[in-house]
Write a structure and sequence with these properties.
It is built from 6 helices and 8 strands. The chain is an alpha+beta fold. The protein has one domain. Strands 1-4 form a two-stranded antiparallel ribbon. A two-stranded antiparallel ribbon has the order 2-3. The protein is globular and about 70 Å long. The protein starts with 8 loop residues before the first helix and ends with a helix.
Length: 182
């Protein structure tokens, strides 16, 4: 039986997508998806709590500076899966050095830490799972987005993190460039 995280891969992808390129898509706000300037949602405890809460990760406390640093390392390791598998392995090994797990009475792997430390430990298990699904991992084709997503399409042809957001924005750009008044 494979070891899996109690957290969905979407939580790991939320952390991996916590840095936005200029004009990137920001989701989960009350008014729906909108476009924002370049921004790192892990630059402070307040922005991390607000962003991750909108992405479905809610904890009772604010993360410390050290915990934010480790969340950024998790983000870098997830992104390294696409650019440098050897860097991903190094970063994952480094992150795992500081985490302790135990087995519960049902044989499930549980982190010894709680709150943010527990979240980070769970995300590391998800990071290992994501490594197993690396062929499905892609970067959004919208040059201003670059969010990671898992391509679940049958022929692995998905290009955008969201067809209604980045896909629509890209289709409009192409249409306008073809129909420019010269």
């Amino acid at each position: 039986m494979p070891i899996t995280s109690p957290r969905p891969l979407d939580h790991l992808l939320a952390v991996a997508n916590s840095y936005h390129q200029p004009e990137a898509r920001d989701v989960g706000s009350a008014d729906g998806a909108h476009w924002i300037p370049a921004h790192d949602h892990l630059d402070s405890s307040e922005t991390a709590v607000e962003f991750l809460s909108r992405m479905g990760i809610r904890l009772g406390t604010a993360p410390t500076r050290s915990q934010l640093d480790r969340l950024r390392l998790v983000r870098e390791a997830a992104r390294a899966l696409l650019t440098s598998p050897s860097s991903y392995q190094r970063q994952l090994g480094h992150l795992l050095e500081s985490v302790v797990y135990r087995l519960d009475s049902h044989g499930r792997l549980k982190p010894v830490g709680d709150q943010w430390d527990g979240l980070i430990a769970d995300l590391l298990v998800s990071l290992i799972e994501l490594g197993d699904q690396a062929p499905r991992l892609k970067v959004c084709a919208n040059d201003q987005c670059h969010w990671l997503f898992l391509d679940g399409s049958k022929n692995r042809s998905r290009q955008w993190c969201g067809a209604a957001t980045c896909g629509n924005r890209e289709r409009v750009r192409r249409f306008r460039s073809r129909h420019e008044v010269r």
